[in-house]
Amino acid sequence: MPLLVFPTSRLLWVRVAALLFTCVTFSVAAHGAYLSGGIADWCIFCWAFSFACTLLVLLVEQFGLQARAPVSWSNFPITVASYAALLCLSASIIFPLYFIKDSQLQGEVRSHRIASTIFSCLAAIAYMGEVCLSRAKPGEVAGYMATAPGLLKVCQTFVACVIFILVSNPVSYTHHSALEWCMAVYCICFILSMAVVVLCVGECTGCLPIPFPKFLSAYGLLAVIMYLSATIVWPIFQFDKHYRHRNYKLANLITVAVLTGLNFLLYLADLAYTARLVFVTV
């Protein structure tokens, strides 16, 4: 029996495409785009991390090592693809805004930056295709991360990370206790959502003192209530003239308010899906 097997499947080719696109993206950016600063480092990280994780998934599957992997292989690949899709999508938006728009650079440097942007967009599309191909179909038995609630957990944690970046540069939640409550909401819900992801990928859901579905339902309801409060409190204490702090970036504050509302909707949809899975199917 050959050591390597190359099944002809759409999922394989989509992963190979994502691997090539991310490789070209960070190679071109590192070779001739002349990048510097934290934003450039973030974009390079997004592409390199996605490339490394996809390469790992391909190697494990082609060598048939899924059974020996210390993670749930029904959850790990789609979790990686989901985070990679969001990372590459964010880099595809941020990179041209900072390094192409209003840039005075011409010639080879600008061409390298445009090429990196194009291949980053192609990588994001490839990862989205992988998620679509890997997600659970109606009636199909699959890992939790391949279901709609699992994918929503990925989105929730990613949005929370973006919020953390925006409220930390500069710190914009310390001038009132109500805003500190909002920060507590972001942190608590992020930790719990990430804990669910880690438990599912690590096949440790049985370690909880209560049944996993009941934990999801209780946590989902708590997160919806907490994010609803943050969605109301953040705009009031950031934009009302009695509480507003003039030293903060208005664009960051508005973005945080929008992302807070977005995460509230994500948690609400998550709760609805979880309630349906727990109560309707039982």
UniProtKB/TrEMBL annotation:
Keywords: Membrane, Repeat, Transmembrane, Transmembrane helix. The keyword Ion transport does not apply. It holds the Pfam family MARVEL. GO terms for cellular component: membrane. The chain crosses the membrane at residues 12-35, 42-60, 80-100, 141-166, 178-198, 218-237, 249-269. Residues 6-139, 144-279 form the MARVEL domain. Its main location: membrane. This is MARVEL domain-containing protein.
